[in-house]
Every structure is written in C-alpha cells, then in structure tokens.
Amino acid sequence: MDPATRDFLRRRFSAYYASTDVDLPPAAESREWGYIPWTAGGTTMVRHKALVDLGDVGTFLADEAPRHVYFSAAEYRAPGAGTMDEKGWLAADLVFDLDGDHLDGVDESTPYPEMLERCKGALVRLVDLLTDDLGFSNDDLQVVFSGGRGYHVHVREESVRTLDSTARREVVDYLRAIDLDIDGLVRTETRRGTTRRMLKTEGGWGARTHRRLLAFVDELAAMDEADATARLMELDGIGEKRARTILGAFETTPEAVRTGNLEAGGPGVRTLVESLAREVVADETAPIDEPVTTDLRRLIRFPGSLHGGTGLVVRRLPVAGIESFDPLVDAVAEPFTDREIRVEVTEPGPVQMEGDSFRVEEGVVSVRECVGVFLLARGRAEVVQS
After folding, report:
1. Which ranges in the chain are annotated with CATH 3.90.920.10?
2. What's the fold here for domain 337-386?
3. The domain 3-175+288-332: what is its CATH number?
4. Rounded to the nearest 5°, which phi and psi values hold at 171?
5. Fewest CB atoms within 10 Å of the CB: 59, 188, 217, 242?
6. Where in the chain is the domain with CATH 3.40.5?
7. Residues of the chain above pLDDT 70, percent
8. Minimal CA–CA distance to 281: which of 236, 218, 339, 222?
C-alpha cells in the first residue's frame, strides 16, 4: 500500500470516527487497549494502554484514526502496565472466534461473500451449542461481526469469567467434539437383572445424535424397502446385509430403536448410531479458533471500530438478527456511502457491496466510496492522486 493510499484511508477513518458514537465494553477502565496505526507494513501494534492513557475514546479515534483497534477480553488491576505479570489478572470474558478462511472447503479461490455466508452458518451452529448444550441465554452472548473474515462471540456470564485456560480448552473440545466417540454417548442401564446400553438422550452430543436417529428412522419409514436399504448403505460401515438387519430391527423392535437402545437389532444398530454420530459432528460442530478462547489475555476487536483490511464496521448484532444480517450491507460505514471516488484498480474482479454485485476492471475507475475504501483496504487498488 503506497503512502498516499494509507493517508487517504486514515483521513476517511478519522471522518467515520468523528461522526460515530462508540460504546465501551463493561469495565472498560480495567481492560488493556491496543491499536495498529497506518504505518508502512501495517503490523506495528501499540498496546499496554489503559483507558486513562487514551482519554476520551471517541476523540482519540477521531484524532488518531488507527487502522485496527482492540481491547482485552481480560480485566486487570493495572491494565496499562508494561508486562503481563505487572497487570494483575482479575477475570476474562469467554470469547469465541470464527474465521471464514479456516472453514473446511474454503480456500483462496472462495469468493469473499461466499466465505462470509458460510461463516455465518458456523456462527448459527456455535450459538445453538452455547444456548442448547451449555445453557447460556441469548442475553449472555454478545455477537460481533469482526469486520473482516468472520464473527466473535463474547460471553460475560459471571460463572465463566474466572475459568483458567485448561477449563476453557475443555469448552473448546466440547464445541468442536474433539475425541468424541460412541462410548461417550452411551449410558449403561440395568433393569430386572438385565443390562443394556442406551444412547444418552438427556442432552449434549448424545441428544443431538438421538434427534438425528429419530429423523433418520422417520425418513426410512417413508421409503419402500429397496430405497431404505440403499439409503442405509450410503452410511459408513453399512453393507447390504447389515442394512437388512437394521430394517428388521426397525420392524420388530421399533420403540426400542427409537429410544436409543443399542442392543436392539444387534451390532447393526450400533453401527448406524456411530455413523449418524459422525454426521452430527460434521454438521453441527463449531469450528472455533482454539487459541482465542484459551488465551486469558487476548486482545479482541473493538465493536464500532473499522477493520483496516476491509473498511467495514466491527458490528454488534443481536442473536435474533443473525440470520438476516448481511455484513456487506449492514456493516458498511455510513460516511462512505454518499459520494464517488477514483481509484486505480490493480486486482480486477468481482465486488459485492450494499446489495449490488459487479466487476471492477483494471485501471482507473470511479466507484462509490464504500467500494473504493474496500478495494483500497484489501490491497486491490491504490488511490488516484489529484
């Protein structure tokens, strides 16, 4: 990025901050603050700042117009101290990070809008796990579009704020179903001297697998025998003979199968449940970035700030609004929507912004400022000097 482009973006970021009110996080005075200015290279972090060092945050942002702005998930006795030991750790929010470019099937060829949409799907799964399995309410969660590749979820419920790194890693392992196996989803039940193995149905991955089992049984019930056999054979470890055994168990002991009795139908039903459990894990886990959650001193993007790699707003959104949220519409900074600017495109290609999809060609073009800022911040264009 050339100096003229950096200077232009710094001035436009300053205009955004001058026209925007920012909301501070809880206990803002106990958190460390950091930022990256518009220097060559764009990677020099200024950190170990307390709120008192910045003064009024709105004024600081308008004056300095940094490229990126962060605050700590942790609270400290002395947040501005120069070393972590001197800060005096008190507690930390439980923070989850989802990056679209870390998702399976996403690579450098994946269009940016598609990556964001797929990451929103991962966010929906994460929120479902946090509320349905771990028992948090929607009010316990603050969901934030990162302004770049994905989403952050902050949990500030008191019971989790003093968890150490090991406990937070256990949360990550659960959400990602690390080392999950069928034995962990099974309970042993003894009745009248008879012991049987039952799929856990009261919550967690066992309950999720049980729901998948019930849906699958209903799916097969609507098919004729040939189609049901073929459908079973699509699953791992099930050949034609085992598929017919499973269908026989559905006919002779349907309620036993539906309740998750792994003894019904012999090893065929167990194989079925194992295969469905693997599907559930593939479909419903949340691919969160472990180091962000386990790091007790992590800096995270400040909601309301601008992302220096896109020019988009780091935007809070309600849990109920996740499905309808479109970052390329709802995270566009308002001051960047009212005029056109000229940029020299160095990386032509598709662009999607504010509901419009189009292609920019190489060379000097006139575009809406929100598009121009996006191209400049992404390194796809340079500013045209007058």
Report:
1. 3-175+288-332
2. Ribosomal Protein L9; domain 1 (3.40.5)
3. 3.90.920.10
4. -60, -45
5. 188
6. 337-386
7. 98
8. 236
Q: Is 224 exposed, middle or buried (0-12, 13-18, 19+ CB in 10 A)?
A: exposed
| Residue 93 is a catalytic residue | no
pLDDT score of 265: 61
Question: 180: pLDDT confidence band, cut at 50, 70 and 90?
Answer: confident
Establish whether 289 is a catalytic residue.
yes
What is the reported pTM? Answer: 0.90
Q: Is 295 noted as a catalytic residue in this protein?
A: no
Give the total residue count for the chain: 386
Other CB atoms closer than 10 Å to residue 304's CB: what's the count? 21
Summarised one tens digit per residue, pLDDT across range 103-145 is 888 988 899 999 999 999 999 999 999 999 999 999 999 999 9
d(CA 305, CA 146): 10
Task: Give the pair of three-digit tokens for residue 345.
Answer: 């495109």
Print burial letters for 335-356: b (CB count within 10 Å at least 16), e (below 16). Answer: bbeeeebebbbeeeeebbbeee
CB count within 10 Å of CB 273 equals 23
Give φ, ψ of 154 to 5 degrees. Answer: -105, 130
Closest CA to 187 of 198, 178, 179: 198
- pLDDT, one tens digit per residue, over 242-273 is 899 888 888 887 787 787 777 766 677 888 88
pLDDT digits (tens, 9 = 90+) for 331-362: 999 988 879 999 999 999 999 999 889 999 99
Rounded to whole angstroms, the maximal C-alpha distance in the chain is 89
Element of type H or E holding 383: strand 381-383
> Do 277 and 211 meet the contact criterion of CB atoms below 8 Å apart?
no
* 134 neighbors 159 (Cβ within 8 angstroms): no
Q: Residue 70 corresponds to which tokens in the numbers above?
A: 């962060």
Residues 9, 377: Cα–Cα separation, whole Å: 8
How far apart are the C-alpha atoms of 281 and 288, rounded to whole Å? 14
| Catalytic position from the list 101, 132, 133, 289 | 289
